[in-house]
Design a protein that fits this description.
Largest sheet: 9 strands, mixed
Order of helices and strands: HHHHHEHEEEEEEEEHEE
Helix content: 10-25%
CATH topology of the largest domain: Umud Fragment, subunit A
Strand content: 15-25%
CATH architecture of the largest domain: Ribbon
CATH superfamily of the largest domain: Umud Fragment, subunit A
Number of strands: 11
Length: 258
């Protein structure tokens, strides 16, 4: 006689249904990863995901931060997308520390009013100062951005907004200084910059993400490339260790908190 767990009827309603299995599939998380993050046993994770064991308060308290969802979503009491807040948007003058700009655990969740593609690549950011009020993003606003795929082209159309992190020395040094929202621009001098819009004059208006790759600028070649980029309005991008900033993602949704 074959040994092991009996075959499960896929149409059978489990004794203790919850949203755990669906959430793990959406986030491409394995039971092993969740067990490691939550501190719960691997066997227990399997039973909970299959609805064979009731989700208790201590399970929920461990699992919700491990898979980064609100507790009510884990219980299946609330549908819709809940995107963890990964960053706070603030210029250097706001005085936020690294741990505040990039919190280790999400302090909350954005709940977009419409469905968004590629939910596994989405993250949210909360505006903590006036550095983006020119885009209608006042302090307290929450936005959702999509992380760039490797080698994804950047839109240089004068409309698309991006979230970018800036460093005191370089990306390699990882000395995060500020996180800003703006429109990307590739200047004729060869610099990739972020154009910000803020009522605060202390916020940098066009901080540099990447300097020219060569210290010598040949005007004709640069102008030709510049005009070509303006024609295509796109530029392939991948971060470089020497960069002063990093494009974190493309803004796809925003809402002000009331």
């Amino acid at each position: 006689m074959p040994r092991g767990r009996p075959a499960q009827d896929p149409h059978r309603t489990p004794p203790y249904p919850n949203a755990l299995n669906r959430l793990l599939r959406q986030r491409h998380l394995t039971h092993q990863q969740v067990a490691s993050r939550s501190g719960l046993g691997l066997s227990l994770i399997g039973k909970l995901a299959r609805g064979e064991q009731r989700l208790r308060a201590e399970h929920i308290a461990a699992l919700a931060p491990a898979i980064e969802v609100p507790e009510e979503v884990l219980l299946g009491k609330e549908s819709g997308l809940a995107v963890p807040i990964r960053y706070r948007v603030a210029a250097y003058g706001a005085g936020l520390e690294r741990a505040e700009l990039e919190p280790e655990l999400p302090p909350g969740f954005a709940r977009p009013a419409r469905s968004l593609a590629d939910p596994e690549r989405l993250f949210a950011a909360e505006v903590a100062d006036d550095s983006a009020d020119g885009f209608g993003l006042a302090k307290g606003a929450v936005l959702v951005a999509r992380r760039l795929a490797h080698g994804e082209s950047l839109a240089l159309d004068g409309r698309t907004q991006y979230l970018a992190a800036f460093y005191r020395t370089s990306l390699a040094a990882d000395d995060l200084m500020e996180i800003l929202v703006g429109i990307l621009d590739w200047r004729i001098t060869g610099e990739l910059t972020l154009i910000t819009r803020s009522s605060d004059r202390q916020v940098p208006q066009q901080p540099v993400i990447r300097r020219p790759t060569s210290s010598k600028i040949f005007v004709n070649d640069t102008l030709t490339a510049f005009l070509h980029e303006r024609k295509t309005t796109e530029q392939p991008y991948s971060s470089d260790a020497a960069d002063l900033g990093q494009v974190l993602g493309r803004v796809v949704w925003a809402e002000s908190l009331r």
